[in-house]
Amino acid sequence: MITTVLAFLLTLGILVVIHEYGHYRVAVACGVKVLRFSVGFGQVIWRRQSSPDATEFVVCALPLGGYVRMLDEREAPVAPGQLSQAFNRKTLWQRAAIVSAGPLANLALAVLLYAAAHWIGVQEPKALIGPPAAGSVAERAGLRAGQWVQAIDHGTGEWQELRSLTDLRWEVTQAALRGERLRLQVSEGDGRGARSVDLDLSGIEAREVDTALTQRIGLGSPWREPVLGQVQAGSAGAAAGLQRGDRVLSIDGQAVADAQQVVEKVRGNLRGGQVSAQAWLVEREGRTLVLNVTPQVVTEKGQTFARVGVEPGRAPVMLTVQHGVFEGLQQGVVRTWEVSVLTVKMLGRMLIGEASLKNLSGPLTIADYAGQSVTKGLAYYLGFLALVSVSLGVLNLLPLPMLDGGHLMYYIFEGVTGRPVPDLWLARLQRGGIAVLLMMMSVALFNDVARLLGLH
């Protein structure tokens, strides 16, 4: 819990400081006097000001955002000698540059964070696919557990090498949201028998990026060899004679190709609160044995399920995915652009009802993911931080009053008409913008709570 909170505060602190520093740096470069640079809102808990006429830097008690307060005649009277330093006296292009600098700083930060994550390198599962879900697109295409997806073609005739299962998931998810057809270069796990497979994602209704979408596609979990690990003393598996190193070939006559299938067949044995004996065909030191295994019925955290008490398989085959300096930077640019485009598309689809509002996440989900990424290592946390930075940059560029994008819309109006937006309309648009933002925040918070309660 403490790790999650600290990771969340660190994430917000970094992103807010970079966003506001973008505004601050460009404002200073344009000759605008910056009165205050604040991280957070509410009561000031730390303050620094080198001189009475310098910018005041503060940290406030509520760390959910920040702001840069500039000299502006619309907010308070300005001394005649300082009029040239007022924000409202600057040219249209200077004001637009100052406003857009915050979101652009977040996008630039994302590029560097993604690049740094690629430079450090991360452990990711090899693109060996687990058993496709029944009725999924992957199953209909003829894909099988243990196959290695080596490359992908988006219909251009050019094969793009896949470094890991993470790359495969990312490419397939984007294609599903676009309703595309893909070609996969597939071989057996050892690289033999390479062939191409068509994956038709045009018929998938991708309203939200979640486990249900992954199930419909059928390329979710990595392949795990069905070789048993530790057998718990006193468990149903130990009573049946299962041993560490046993390879599970079939259960009740149904072939097993992946460790996840072992779990599914055991848990699927529970019907009406009762379990029955299962015939496990295992290979042990070159011999095949048939063992009768009767799972135990256990209840944990309010859920009842069947359990054998063995590790159902080996860990997935892992690879270190790492890039050089220039390649990592290039990947940072590409990933930032792809995530930005995907974010805009999903927001647009939510607006017209083609995507679910469940895709919106709030501070609780961000805090949870921040804590998880920190425990996995620096590269994972940097990747997570980059993702949130992209989201913050794109969100702030939306044409909504109260956001930077809303102010840019005002400046576009001013540039086209030659006059600023009337004060009456500014007030109305501000109230509307507040209402929209409050609605989005409420939906995001509701989704957070629903996820924590297991309702999503």
Q: Could you explain the architecture of this structure?
A:
The chain is α+β, with helices and mostly antiparallel strands and 456 residues long. The chain folds into 3 domains: 92-121 and 323-456, no CATH class; 123-223 and 316-321, Roll (Pdz3 Domain); 236-307, Pdz3 Domain. The protein has 12 helices and 14 strands. It has helices at 2-29, 92-120, 137-140, 165-178, 211-217, 236-240, 259-267, 325-351, 363-376, 378-396, 404-417, 423-452; strands spanning 34-48, 56-70, 122-125, 148-153, 160-161, 181-187, 195-200, 247-251, 254-255, 278-284, 287-293, 296-300, 303-307, 318-321. It has a 4-stranded antiparallel sheet, with helices on one face. Strands 9-8-10-11 form a 4-stranded antiparallel sheet. A two-stranded antiparallel sheet has the order 1-2. Helix 1 packs across helix 9 (363-376) and helix 8 packs across helix 10 (378-396). The longest helix has 30 residues, at 423-452. It starts with a helix and ends with a helix. The model has no long low-confidence stretch (mean pLDDT 85).
Rg, Å, rounded: 27 Å
Task: Give a count of the beta strands, DSSP E runs of length 2 or more.
Answer: 14
The N- to C-terminal Cα distance equals 22 Å
Low-confidence runs of at least 5 consecutive residues: none
- What is the H-and-E element order? HEEHEHEEHEEHHEEHEEEEEHHHHH
State which percent range the strand residues make up. 15-25%
Largest beta-sheet details: 4 strands, antiparallel
Query: How many domains is the backbone divided into?
Result: 3
Number of continuous helical runs = 12
| Mean model confidence by pLDDT | 85
Strand order within the widest sheet? 5-4-6-7
Shape assignment: elongated
Helix content: 40-55%
Secondary structural class? alpha+beta
EC number: 3.4.24.-
Organism: Rubrivivax rivuli
Subcellular location: Membrane
Family: Belongs to the peptidase M50B family.
